[in-house]
Design brief:
Structural class: alpha+beta
Strand content: 15-25%
């Protein structure tokens, strides 16, 4: 009997667990996501003396004169630079406009009879450029009024190239290409970071005032500039009373469904329609095929990004608006959007619409339990939703201010203790830095107030708040026990870095949309969540499809009379962009089909040996082509009649690694090289300037080390396929050295120039104690390494990862070696990836056609822009095509720096056995640095190994030796 009772208890417990698990995975639908908070705004801490808040406070007593003052664009007073011109009836405009290029500045004079604060708006047209946002600096009387007006953004307008979504020959939807759809727009000058809901206000004094716009990036046409007063919006309750008084009534039996992926316009090419297969309720839906059915997600997350839809209304009256949305990324925070109809906010509450965290799709009527009503007239209308920081903005400003102050304190402590403090020494930091304890106490209180506000606003304590609490605990502890600061400096640095990451994370506000519904108030809406049966059917169908669908091939697979098989080893996003370009331009123009396959990077060699390799391999390392050529597996491209014409697209340095035995066995796709990065603010504090020569570096090392800061030189982690070190290559090439001699039969590293370069390189680590390992981007961000030499793609990382130091750093040409004639040699070595044709290709002519198309200027520009549009600035493409790099969306000043360095770039030849060069160069370096060996002796020993390997390989392939 007891056994039977136990069985019953077990059965009941199992059923209870099952029911609870079902309840956990299917939470109740909450319609409050689209409601506006009633909490008072958090009061932001000031981020600095030159900020907008201080500027407004200094003019708090100024009047706001009514009326609008218009300044016609063509009536400018002065221009600086070339390329400015006045055009009539430009792109449908009635009247004249001034075209401003991507460099130079333009000035207007305006007579101000009434001094005071004014908002400023500009009617502009985005002239075709490099597909990035337009940037201008705004000044009044030749002075930038505050930090923020130094970079004003003007959006370009984007949309789907085709109205209908196309499918490949396997029935999958193809992501629509995004193209520019420029139109005249009117935009107020606002904060590019989204910290302020309202447009900037600028103070204009009485009398003649001069307005200036200095071009930082991209051209634009200006029709007019207006000084005006932004009108205060009515609240919904005020507007509702007006509806009642005006007799405006709700419509009946109206239902308009707008598919979110059918957006008319967007502010960025990253806002392309997407495929979501997380739920069977998305529209359209297919269990196994890719369907484009949503928009937004992680791409729609940065303040200022907007999406606009167009729809038709059949009768006048009051409507409600509902969204089928999913916010499954920000737990413990919330996403915020603003909503405009026909270019205007309907009422105050539409500036901040909040979307809380939910795992599943939600159907939200704006307004929640008491939906808002919107007055729409018969005809065409536009809804625009824009990412807004809302109540999060002052929290971010406050933490950003804290990070700057805590980093500044870190640098002060670092100057006393160094980054490796003696744990047994009392540095008496509280006496040597009198305000240290006060700063820690104040910042602990400030960060605690942010954490409390977030917890109150969201009703939960999540990982987003845990970071803040960790910092608060540590700061309180350090304030109470200042003698422990030195011992805990590493933990302090990690926590401050965590705050920086918190800013990046919380600033991003992702939201996915399936569709919008504009309908009669109270109209029944579609169900957003799937039932249990629908979920089971969806999962089982997807499981079955995993056995039938081909996920290796990308896009169309139909073969034409001429076909090329191409392997790509990067990611699916890159492959899909490439396949889109192939189907758009290469196949239609040449009638050659391309089988593009996404494969692992290590599969090319075994596949080639088995006779199953591709015709063309893309994005391969620079050591691969010559290794294949030695074995007769790579095709010689110099045999094609138009090779010289194709080779002229690249610098000689890009082709050097692919030359072997009078042939060329690949074309360069990407080419990267070192640049000098430096923190302008810290060098200014230390009275230093960016070094022009290596002697300048020696001079500045003592100043940096006196303040316990460091200079960074690139040093790769040890591995079997090391390339020659960038610093050594610089020193070698700048002094006239070479890596190989005697027709590449021997290493040239035994020369006196090479020995001297090796000794100088190792001395940085033995005599000057440079670090052997360092996370340069992060230490550059904190200021520990305010200067260093790194690959130029570090620029992309810093732009995205370290917004708090934007404008505080720059990059330029690397330091050079002063020659006997007084000139400076700034040569550096580059590294490349290439595209290679295999010798066993059945149709070499078609393969060559593909390689020419791929490395062409237009294709490289299109691919680079698509990748940046897809993945943001971090994915800016380092093309090896000279003309293409100029057309990619680099700010003019930064591109000029790149171009200046590129002229000094040299390639490192690849030779039989050359893989030993980088490996043994590193081995010799480690012997000197770690084992204190004599540099000349250590290097000479390893050069013997390099020469032996070169000789062995040349004998193996029957080459002269």
């Amino acid at each position: 009997m007891n056994i039977r009772k136990k069985k019953y208890v077990i059965v009941i417990l199992v059923l209870a667990v099952f029911v609870l698990s079902i309840w956990a995975f299917y939470p109740s639908n909450q319609t409050s996501n689209g409601q506006v908070r009633a909490m008072a705004d958090f009061e932001a801490e000031s981020a600095g003396a030159e900020g907008y808040d201080e500027y407004i406070n200094s003019h708090s007593t100024a009047k706001r004169p009514e009326g609008v003052i218009r300044i016609e664009g063509e009536n400018y007073a002065e221009t600086v630079g070339d390329g400015f011109e006045v055009a009539e009836k430009l792109h449908g405009l009635e009247g004249k406009a001034v075209i401003t290029p991507e460099t130079g500045s333009i000035n207007w004079d305006v007579q101000m009879d009434q001094p005071g604060l004014y908002n400023v708006r500009i009617h502009y047209y985005p002239i075709e450029g490099k597909s990035s946002a337009i940037e201008r600096q705004f000044a009044i009387n030749q002075e930038v009024p505050f930090k923020g007006a130094d970079i004003i953004l003007f959006d370009r307008v984007w949309g789907d190239r085709n109205e209908e979504i196309k499918r490949d020959d396997r029935g999958n939807d193809l992501r629509p290409r995004q193209v520019e759809k420029p139109e005249w727009q009117i935009t107020a000058l606002t904060d590019r970071y989204g910290y302020y809901d309202e447009p900037y206000s600028f103070y204009f004094d009485k009398g003649m005032q001069r307005l200036s716009l200095t071009a930082l990036r991209e051209p634009m046409a200006i029709d007019y500039i207006e000084l005006y007063q932004d009108q205060e919006l009515k609240t919904y309750e005020e507007l509702k009373s007006e509806y009642t008084a005006g007799g405006i009534k709700p419509v009946k039996d109206q239902y308009i469904l707008i598919q979110a992926e059918d957006a008319e316009f967007k502010s960025s090419p990253t806002l392309y329609p997407m495929s979501d297969r997380s739920s069977p309720t998305v529209i359209p839906y297919d269990v196994s095929k890719i369907r484009i059915n949503t928009i937004g997600g992680l791409n729609w997350k940065l303040p200022g990004q907007w999406i606009e839809w167009e729809f038709e209304v059949e009768e006048d009256g009051l409507y409600q608006i509902a969204l089928k949305q999913k916010q499954d990324q920000l737990r413990g925070v919330y996403a915020t959007r603003s909503l405009m109809i026909d270019g205007k906010y309907p009422f105050e509450e539409m500036k901040r619409i909040r979307f809380n965290f939910e795992r599943d799709w939600q159907m939200n009527v704006l307004g929640g339990d008491e939906p808002y009503s919107y007055h729409l007239t018969k005809g065409s209308h536009r809804i625009r939703m824009m990412v807004s920081l809302g109540e999060i903005a002052p929290l971010l400003q406050t933490i950003e201010s804290s990070v700057l102050q805590l980093n500044e304190m870190y640098r002060k402590i670092l100057m006393i203790t160094s980054n490796k403090p003696d744990p047994f020494r009392d540095y008496q930091l509280e006496k040597r830095i009198p305000d240290m304890v006060e700063v820690f106490t104040e910042q602990a209180e400030t960060i605690q107030s942010v954490a409390d506000y977030l917890e109150q606003a969201t009703g939960e304590r999540s990982d987003k708040v845990a970071v803040l609490h960790s910092m608060v605990r540590q700061l309180k502890d350090l304030a109470a026990y200042p003698e422990t600061v030195a011992k805990r400096l590493d933990a302090y640095k990690v926590n401050v870095g965590g705050l920086g990451t918190w800013i990046l994370t919380v600033r991003e506000q992702p939201l996915s949309l399936d569709y919008l519904v504009v309908s009669s108030p109270g109209r029944e809406l579609p169900r957003a969540e799937a039932t249990l049966l629908e979920e089971v059917g969806h999962e089982l169908g997807a499981y079955a499809a995993s056995y039938t669908e081909d996920y290796d091939n990308i896009g169309n697979t139909e073969e034409k009379n001429r076909a090329v098989t191409v392997w790509i080893t990067t990611g699916r996003d890159q492959a899909q962009v490439l396949k889109g370009l192939i189907d758009d331009s290469f196949t239609p123009d040449t009638d050659i089909s391309v089988q593009l396959k996404l494969v692992p990077g290590n599969i090319l060699l075994p596949a080639t040996l088995a006779g199953e390799g591709p015709d063309v391999a893309m994005q391969i390392g620079e050591d691969v082509p010559v290794n294949y050529a030695m074995r007769g597996a790579a095709a010689d491209l110099s045999r094609f009649a138009d090779y010289d014409e194709v080779a002229s697209r690249f610098r000689d340095s890009g082709l050097t690694p692919y030359k072997y035995d009078d042939g060329v066995f690949a074309l360069p796709e990407q080419q990267t090289f070192p640049m000098l990065f430096y923190r302008k603010d810290i060098l200014k504090e230390l009275n230093l300037t960016p070094p022009k020569t290596w002697q300048d570096i020696y001079n500045m090392i003592s100043v940096l080390q006196k303040h316990n800061m460091e200079f960074y030189l690139p040093l790769e982690a040890t591995n079997a396929s090391l390339v020659p070190n960038a610093t050594f290559s610089m020193l070698l090439y700048q002094n006239g050295g070479e890596f190989y001699r005697g027709d590449d039969k021997k290493s040239a590293l035994d020369s006196e120039i090479s020995m001297s370069a090796f000794k100088k390189w190792t001395q940085f680590y033995t005599s000057y104690k440079f670090p052997l390992q360092a996370d340069f981007p992060n230490r550059f961000r904190t200021g520990e390494m305010p200067i260093g030499i790194a690959d130029y793609t570090t620029y992309n990382m810093l732009t995205v990862m370290a917004p708090e130091i934007k404008g505080l750093w720059d990059f330029t040409v690397v330091p050079g070696t002063k020659l006997a004639d007084g000139t400076i040699n700034n040569e550096v070595a580059s590294h490349t990836t290439g595209v290679m044709m295999l010798e066993n290709s059945d149709d070499k002519e078609s393969s060559w056609q593909f390689m020419k198309w791929w490395t062409d200027k237009e294709t490289q520009i299109a691919y680079g822009r698509e990748m940046e549009g897809l993945m943001g600035e971090a994915a800016r493409y380092p093309t090896a095509n000279i003309e293409a790099l100029e057309e990619l969306p680099w700010p003019v000043k930064d591109y000029n720096n790149l171009e200046s360095q590129w002229q000094w770039v040299r390639g490192i030849p690849q030779v039989p056995g050359g893989y030993f060069t980088g490996r043994h160069l590193d081995n010799a370096f480690r012997k000197v640095v770690n084992a204190n060996e004599n540099p000349r002796e250590a290097f000479s020993d390893y050069i013997l190994y390099i020469n032996d390997e070169i000789e062995i390989k040349r004998k193996e392939f029957n080459l002269p030796h």
